[in-house]
Amino acid sequence: MQRFVYADNAATTAVLPEVIEAMTPCFAENWGNPSSLYGKGRDAARALIAAREKIASLLGADPKEIYFTSCGSEADNWAIKGAAHANAARGKHIITTKIEHPAVLQTCKALEKEGFEVSYLDVDSDGLLTAADIEAAIRPDTTLVAVMHANNEIGSILPIKEITEVCRAHKVLCFTDAVQAVGSIPVNVRELGVDMLSASGHKLGAPKGIGLLYIKKGVRIPALIDGGGQEKGKRGGTENLPYIVGFARALELAVERLPDMKRIAALRDRLAEEIVKIPRTRINGGMEHRLPGNLNVSFECIEGESLLLLLDRAGIAVSTGSACSSNSLEPSHVLLAIGVPVEIAHGSMRISLSHANTEEDADYILEQLPAIVSRLRDMSPLWSAAPTGDIGDR
Amino acid sequence: MLYSDKVMDHFSNPRNVGEIENADGVGEVGNATCGDIMKIFLRIEDDIITDVKFKTFGCGAAIATSSMATEIIKGKSVEEALTLTNKAVIEALDGLPPAKVHCSVLAEEAVKAAISDYYKKNGMEDKVDIPCTGCCASCAMAHEHGAAHDHDMIEED
Q1: Which one of B21, B59, B65 makes the best mutation probe of the A interface by having the most chain A beta carbons within 10 Å?
Q2: Domain match, A145 and A76 both
Q3: Pair A282, A248 in one domain
Q4: Predicted confidence band of residue A325 (pLDDT cuts 50, 70, 90)
Q5: Chain A residues with CB-CB distance to B under 8 A?
Q6: Can you tell me the ipTM of this complex?
Q7: Torsion angle defined by CA atoms of residues A14, A18, A21 and A22, in that order, rounded to the nearest 10 degrees
Q8: Which residue segment(s) compose the domain that A111 sits in?
C-alpha cells in the first residue's frame, strides 16, 4: 500500500481517538438538552459545565468568559463586528494587519461598507510587526485592534502581549485570532491580556464545527444569535454538547503534548534544511518567531497547484498559496504582504506538521519532493529559458 | 474544485511534453504573474502538423489543456488546427471547473500563436491573425480585450 503522509495540519487535523471516545457518550446516552430540567438534561448540563471549565482553565480564563461558536470564523466575525458596533458612538476606526485570515479581513471589508474605517498594517518579510507599529496607527477614534496570534500560512507568531499593553494604554479593545496558535504554542488569555480571542476545535484534533470566543469579563459586545438564552444570552441555539466535550478533550491533549512541539520543530527544521538544497528554492517568512509545525517554501518556475496534485499522487498532503488552488485568481495575500514576488508566490507550498508526524514522514517527503519538482521544472518553459538565472520580468 | 478523470489523466501523464528544435512554428502565451505560461512548438510538413510539443508553467488544468490541445491538432492540417476552440478542449477533457476555463483559452491561443509564427516565417503574413498573448481571460491582471477577440467563456458545472 502507498504511504500516506498528512502534512496539512494547519488546514485541519484528524479527529483524535481519545476525542471520539470522549464524544461518543454524548451521542449514545448523554443526548439531553442542557436546558432541560429533568435528569437527562441535567446530565447534559453537567457535561457542558465540565467542558467549559476545562477549556477555561486550559486557556487561563474564567468559565463565564468562554462562548462556544460553530467555528473560528464565526468567533472572528462576532468579535470584530460586535466590538465595532458596540463602540461605534466612540469611534469607527479599526486596526488590523494585511496577513489576517479571510474571516478577519472580509469582516473588516464588510464593516468598511457600513462606514467604518480600517487600517490594514504592513508586516515585515518575516510576517511580523511590533507593538510600536500598532501604537503609531492608533487614532482618537480607534476602538479595536485585531491582530492574529499566529499566521496560518507562514506561521509567524505576533507579539500579542506587547500589543495588548499598547491597546490598554490607549483604551482600545484588542482581539486576537488564535485559531492557529491554540494547541501549537502555550496560549493564556490572562498573560496575553487580550479582550477577546478566537479558537477552533478542528485545528487541534476535535471535529470541524466547533469554535469559541473568549470575551474578557467587562467587555460588552452585542449578542450574535438571539434565542433561548444559551451562552449567557449572547449566542442562542442548543449547545453542541458532543463537539464541546470533544473540543475540551482535544485541547487538554494538545496542552499535554505541547512539550512534543520541540520534536515537531526539529522535524520541520530538518525538512527546511533539506528542501532548500533543491536549487532556486526559498523559505517564505522568518524562522525565529514561527509556529513549530509550519514550513512555507517556494520553488521557482513551477506552479503550486500542479506540485500539490503530484505530491497527492505520491500520498503526500500539503497546501499551496498559489492562486490556482483556490477560487480566487490572486496568489496568497500573506506571501504578497511579506514581499514574495507574485510569480514566486504561485510556486509556494505549505507543510504543517502535528504531533502525529514522524521522522519517517519527513524521510518520505524528502524522498519524493525533489523528483516531483524536477518533473514540473522539466515541463516549464520558464525553467528551460533560464535554469540558473532569475525568472526575469515576464 | 474537482477535476474530471480525463483532466487528471492528461495532467499526470501529459502527452507531447518537450520542445522541437528548429520548429516551423512556436507560440507562447500567458505570463508568470498570472501563473500560467504555455509554449507550443509545431513541425509542419506540406501544411500538415506532423509533430507538436509543449512546455507549460501552470496548474493542473493548464498542463492538461496543453496536453489535450496538442493531441487534438496533431496530424491535422494547419487550417483545421486554426479552428480549435477552447470549448473543444474543455469537451475533450470532460469539462473543467469554472475557475479553470481560462486555461483552455490559453491552450487555444497558444496553438494560434504557434500557427501565426509559422505563417510569418513562411511569408504568409496576410494570414496572420495574431491572437492576444499574455491573456489570462478571467485573471485580474488580464489586459483589455478587443471586440474582435471574444473567448467562449462557457461555465461548466
Answers
A1: B59
A2: yes
A3: no
A4: low
A5: 301-306, 309-310, 313, 322-325, 327, 329-331, 342-343, 346, 378-384, 391, 394
A6: 0.87
A7: -100
A8: 17-256
